[in-house]
Amino acid sequence: MGKIAAELERALARREAEGVKGAVMPRVLAHGAGWSVDDVLCTSGPRDRPFEERHEHVCVAMVAAGAFEYRSRAGSGLMTPGAIMLGNAGACFECGHRHRAGDRCIAFRYTPGCFEQIAADAGIRSRDARFAAVRLPPLRPLAPLVAAACAGVVSEAGVAWDELAPAVAALALRLAAGMPAEDPREVPAAALARVAPVLCLIDSAPDDGLSVERLARHAGLSPYHFLRTFERVTGVTPHQYLLRARLRAAAQRLAEESAKIVDVALDCGFNDVSNFNHAFRAEFGASPRAYRMRMQG
Question: Which of 28, 177, 199, 226 has the lowest tally of Cβ within 10 angstroms?
């Protein structure tokens, strides 16, 4: 378990021991002209009521650990590690934890003027500088930015937030433009209840031998029904979700530790180092060694 997830688990354990209500604890990581980045840790759980808020600014929030349900007028979705929560300035929204306690997000926020300028610089028309979707699933183009932001949470030195903030906004706009419009109806509660324990299993131990058959049994579904249900809830297949969970875990370890690359690969569930190197380069655009050198400066 990486430091980001471990800190969330400790916060949840303290909350349980003290018997207090769930809370949202933001920490400012960086800010500039029209933008800011916060590390947001939430300890709400199934016993807490969903909370309603309003986006004061445009929000692009990366889920670093945990999971939660997000709903706005534009639609609803389950936010899982590696996914991106999208919010337009002025939009009301609701977050809840019916099936799993706690989450941790890295929230990039932009004033409308700053966001429109970023869109214009990226060649996006001003009328398109608004999100029609409520989330982006864990997609490969997002992986390098998510990994860089997570590294910045653990060790702020070496992360150029002023470069990362506009890159995150521009990529989120481009990817969201290609996503289908969100169905305003919620994902069925039965589907969430089936998939939530599976996500918890994957996120807690992505290095385990987790076959589709084993995951389907954990969900209490047939493999075929499980595949359809999982992709509907998360936006990606179980294989894609598991692979990206393993790669994110490897990227965090490479940024934080000095362990041998072969040990990192094996510990994160890769049985073949050459396959690990290939998958890592495809995901992050650099070899594990080059990535470590860049992140550790």
Answer: 28
Q: Give the CA angle between residues 87, 247, 197 to the nearest 5°.
A: 65
Task: Convert the pLDDT of each residue in 262-292 to its tens digit.
Answer: 999 999 999 889 999 999 999 999 999 999 9
pLDDT digits (tens, 9 = 90+) for 170-226: 999 999 987 665 554 567 788 888 998 999 889 888 877 788 889 999 999 998 899
3-state SS string for 111-137: CHHHHHHHHHHCCCCHHHCCCCCCEEC
Which of 59, 54, 96, 56 lies closest to 79, judged by CA? Answer: 96
Give the whole-angstrom CA distance, residue 192 versus residue 152: 31
State the Rg of the chain over Cα: 18
Within 10 angstroms of residue 293's Cβ, the number of other Cβ atoms is: 12
